[in-house]
Amino acid sequence: MSWCSGVSLWGWSGRRQLLVMVLLSAVMCLLHLLAQHRAIQLYPSPKLQMRVGEARHGRESLVSPRSPTSPPTLTSTGARGREAKNEAHQNASLENDHLEAIPLENRIILSSWPPKVRFPLMVFLNVGRLGNRLNMYAVALAFQEVHRASSTVAITRDSMVELVALLDPAHLPLHVVDRFLIGEAMEEEAIERVIPDYLKNDMVSHLEPTFQRAEKEYRESGKPKMYTMEGYQNRMWLIAGHHHTIRAAFRIRDDLKQKAARFLEGVRQRRGRRDITFVGFHIRRTDYIDHFRTFFNCTSPLPGPAFYQLAMNHYRATLRNPVFVVASDDLSNARQHLNTSTDVEFTDMKTAAEDMALLGSCSHSIMTVGSFGFWASFFAGGQVVYPLITNCTLKPFVHPDHLGPRGYENWKAIDVGGGGPV
Asked: What is the rounded distance in angstroms from the CA atom of residue 186 to the CA atom of residue 57?
């Protein structure tokens, strides 16, 4: 029985009791409606939905990144597809307001089903922040190089928006899928979700088999179909043979490079010397502290001051006049542990993209964990020092097994057993 259907007041007397029951009924009715709304709409506002998914399938979000198990394959009825399409059009103005200032005109925007592409259409989805989006795009580029003759690889428009905060869009070659296209594919029952095994932290083993299956199905049926490749594609051995392609695509915006250059020049002037070797140093904390313990099942805390000093001493012993440029999602903690070091500078940038550009402008790198530190190190292109973490059930990012045997010869792991006390 719905709480909104009414509450019997038989047996109650007095105006006070009546008022209490009316208020209780109203509150429970509101909670009931909110619960139903939550079940239908996973994210609380259309603006947030854009960051997560391009359309919804009835009461189930097209993208469900936190789900530990794979839900059933997405197969939409025509009515539900039309519902998703209509909703996408209703929310389009919110998206377009933000996109007007972003130069995407040189990209092919796929917005009407079926698009004029080589099928199957393999759309990489990711709901993470900047580092995770870079992971996704790099892996998608690698798959495009291998499968360009037999399929089309694309990303979603919301991912493109995240990426062009850092990168020059003129060099990003993948097609961009508009939210309208997903709604229309649902209406035509021509879309399938492909979700990794989150519980096992297995984000990539399903990718190649899915490409092969999708290509085989299209050869046999000739039916246009979209596959959404979801999850966090963070096994960097997948891109080891494609670094030249990725570097050609990942060009940091000129305005960000200029701002980073001004910061580094200011450091030279304050220190009164030109012969400085800058080492970018990214420290990942905040939500990763709990993630490290509860998801990866690590028996010690995140790499801390013990690792910081080992890594910095490595460069102090091998470089002339190193200066460490520190960025972190918890800069106050970084200052607490590194403020007494005379060869440390802390970023004053305002955005994640600016921090990435600054760290990527250094000559060498130190990272703790996470995709942001990986890409800052990748952009810098010199030697990289990172912690070898071996006391976890699942391997946190980054680990030598994530990098593979080739392509990362300049990456040096320091075994500190998870670091010192945080």
From this structure: 8
